[in-house]
Design brief:
heterodimer, A: about 400 residues, alpha/beta, 9-stranded mixed sheet, globular, B: about 130 residues, mainly beta, 5-stranded antiparallel sheet, 3-stranded antiparallel sheet, 8 strands
Chain lengths: ~400, ~130
């Protein structure tokens, strides 16, 4: 559907933060998240009382956005918890653009944090979630989800296109190479293709090194109307276009395991932004598992369907490669508290601001950020730019 | 079973068939497609005009995964099956042989303490 073209570039990210990546010393989910909000608001040169829109999503708390507002001591005019899994925060940009355009609010914070390592967060609640959110046609088979669902997709990709174990491992190796350049990344030890393949099996063909980390971590961004975004301390990062899509919730209902609805969200976000995939300087993809970047590079149009495995070979998406992907180390090596896409958004902002030190992508002007939710269930794509037009 | 505004929970109907040893799936009377998992409306044409039928119990393995022993769970597999009648479902294969994509499999109902569940066995390749 055609969107109102005045929404293109109508909002900008003026503040961003991460906090507590790795092991956050026992701070709880809400403490971590609140601290990330404080840091992002300060980064934008605003005060907490300026925040009149609050967006967040939780895996376990049913009124998380209200709980966060209470914790922060603010009473925003816009509260939203669009929950499409790990893709939520990219999706929130779409809601934020609409709300700001409609005049509902001026300064929106999008935030997320969880402490599965230190604070007794999401891992402790996974049993309870199963009881609260039953899947009667899946539960009797005791899948190890989400890995098992991604294992199915990985196996189909290998079967249909000849994608190899080595190519999948390349994704993890490239992520680790980026992480080694990022002081904030949780896992920076050297990693080889053999290390990935020979690691502990989780759900065939995926080993533990094909799977994202489980770390603490929080992030937040401040979103403002583009014409109000010039007054902060940092260069505003314009959001040119955002789109979301879904194809299923449970893996058995995914029409084809080798094509995701990133195809729809990506094409729509690029069209809304008015840019071509060839113009993109850097990419942040939700790499919950090594198959994800391969699927998304194909579905977003960086290569043809079936060629994702060959595309990532020889470090092409790593620090010396031609397409910088997940320059913070991604969910595989930097941070993954349960949902990731907000961390990809913050990394894109930092790259476009030129704040990334040794891992800085030279002359980065245009970034594609892609979020994934559930078991390849929901997708959201956004285009970030240093130029409004 | 309880009726509400003319509706009986398709989920409850499905599992009550399983309890009685029957594998029944909705078939849309308007577009003739099978619907799985059970729902109030056809996912193909959105009609609510369906009947419960006994589908062909055979299909082929679309994908599978083995999960190693973890905590209280023993080694197990999960499979996605493309049924001959055009729908896909998730299950497990009861076998001591290796699983391969494309294997022909057949559904049967396994009685367990937690309730009956649909599982699959390989169809003898000689037949």
């Amino acid at each position: 559907m055609e969107w109102n073209s005045r929404l293109r570039g109508s909002i900008a990210i003026t503040g961003s933060s991460t906090f507590g990546i790795g092991h956050a010393g026992g701070l709880t989910d809400i403490e971590l998240t609140a601290q990330a909000v404080q840091l992002a608001v300060r980064d934008a040169g605003l005060h907490m009382q300026d925040i009149d829109g609050l967006m967040t999503a939780s895996i376990s708390s049913s009124m998380w956005v209200v709980k966060l507002a209470e914790y922060l001591g603010i009473q925003p005019d816009l509260l939203d918890s669009t929950q499409i899994g790990g893709a939520s925060f990219v999706g929130h940009l779409l809601i934020a653009a609409l709300a700001i355009d409609a005049g509902l609010c001026k300064n929106v914070v999008i935030a997320y944090g969880a402490a599965p390592r230190g604070g007794g967060g999401i891992s402790a609640t996974s049993g309870a979630r199963k009881a609260l959110d039953p899947y009667p046609y899946e539960d009797p088979y005791q899948l190890f989800n989400p890995p098992s669902s991604y294992a199915f997709a990985t196996q189909r990709h290998m079967y249909e296109y000849g994608t190899t174990r080595e190519q999948l491992a390349e994704v993890a190796v490239s992520a680790r190479a980026w992480a080694s350049l990022n002081p904030e990344a949780f896992n920076r030890e050297p990693l080889s293709i053999e290390d990935v393949i020979n690691a502990r099996m989780i759900s065939t063909p995926l080993t533990v090194r094909d799977c994202c980390l489980v770390t603490d971590g929080a992030a937040a961004v401040v979103v403002q109307a583009a014409d109000r975004s010039q007054f902060g301390p940092h260069r505003p990062i314009y959001v040119l276009g955002t789109a979301m899509a879904t194809s299923h919730r449970q893996i058995a209902c995914m029409p084809s395991l080798t094509t995701t609805s990133a195809k729809a969200s990506g094409a729509q976000a690029l069209a809304r932004a008015g840019v071509r995939v060839q113009d993109i300087d850097l990419v942040q993809l939700y790499d919950a598992f090594t198959i994800n970047p391969i699927l998304f590079l194909e579905d977003l149009g960086f290569c043809k369907k079936g060629e994702g495995g060959a595309f990532v070979e020889n470090g092409r998406i790593g620090p010396q490669g031609e397409l910088p992907v997940n320059t913070n180390g991604g969910g595989l090596s930097c941070v993954h508290p349960g949902m990731y896409s907000l961390f990809g958004m913050v990394e894109a902002v930092r790259q476009l601001r030129g704040d990334c030190g040794v891992r800085q992508v030279p002359e980065a002007r245009l970034a594609l950020v892609h979020g994934n939710g559930g078991v390849l269930s929901a997708q959201a794509t956004s285009i970030f730019s240093i130029d409004r037009s | 079973m309880e009726k509400y505004h003319g509706l009986i929970s398709p989920e409850k109907i499905y599992f009550s068939f399983l309890e009685n040893g029957e594998f029944k799936v909705q078939k849309c009377n308007d577009c003739t497609n099978y619907i799985f998992f059970p729902r109030l409306n056809c996912t193909h044409c959105h009609s609510d005009n369906y009947q419960w039928e006994s589908p062909n119990r055979q299909g082929v393995i679309y994908a599978f995964t083995y999960m190693p022993v973890k905590d209280s769970l023993s080694m197990r597999n999960a499979i996605l099956v493309n049924m001959d009648d055009g729908f896909r479902l998730l299950s497990t294969l009861i076998t001591d042989q290796e699983i391969q994509i494309g294997d022909r499999v057949e559904a049967f109902i396994e009685k367990a303490v937690q309730g009956p569940r649909l599982v699959f066995k390989q169809v003898d390749k000689e037949q």
